[in-house]
C-alpha cells in the first residue's frame, strides 16, 4: 500500500512541479521496498530454521 501511495505522491509532485511531494513519494516507495525485503529475509530465515529442525520442532 505504501508503494502505491508513494507512486501517487511522486506523480502528483511531477505534475504540479512540487519537488517536495515528488521526493516524499520516492521516499515512501523506498520504504515500502525495504519493508518488503525485510519480510523476504524473515521468511527465508524461517525456512532455514524449519529445514534444520525435526518435524516436532526440536
Question: Summed up, what is this model?
Answer:
The chain has 58 residues and is an all-alpha fold. The chain is 84% helix and 0% strand.
Features:
58 residues; mainly alpha; 2 helices; rod-shaped
Describe the structure.
With 58 residues, the chain is mostly helical. Helix content is 84%, strand content 0%. It has helices spanning 2-16, 19-52. The longest helix is centred in the middle third of the chain and has 34 residues, at 19-52. It is rod-shaped.
Q: Would you spell out the secondary-structure blueprint of this structure?
A:
Blueprint lengths: L1 H15 L2 H34 L6
Helix pairs in contact: 1-2
Anisotropy-based shape:
rod-shaped
Annotation, overall tally of beta strands? 0
Chain-averaged pLDDT: 87
Low-confidence stretches: none
Order of helices and strands: HH
Supply the number of helical segments.
2
- Percent of residues in helices comes to over 70%
Query: What share of residues are in beta strands?
Result: under 5%
Derived structural class: mainly alpha
Instruction: Output the radius of gyration.
Output: 18 Å
Amino acid at each position: 500500500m505504501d508503494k502505491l501511495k508513494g507512486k501517487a505522491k511522486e506523480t502528483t509532485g511531477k505534475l504540479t512541479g512540487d519537488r517536495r511531494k515528488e521526493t516524499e513519494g520516492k521516499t515512501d516507495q523506498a520504504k515500502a521496498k525495504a519493508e518488503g525485503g525485510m519480510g523476504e529475509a524473515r521468511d527465508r530465515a524461517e525456512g532455514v530454521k524449519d529445514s534444520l529442525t525435526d518435524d516436532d520442532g526440536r
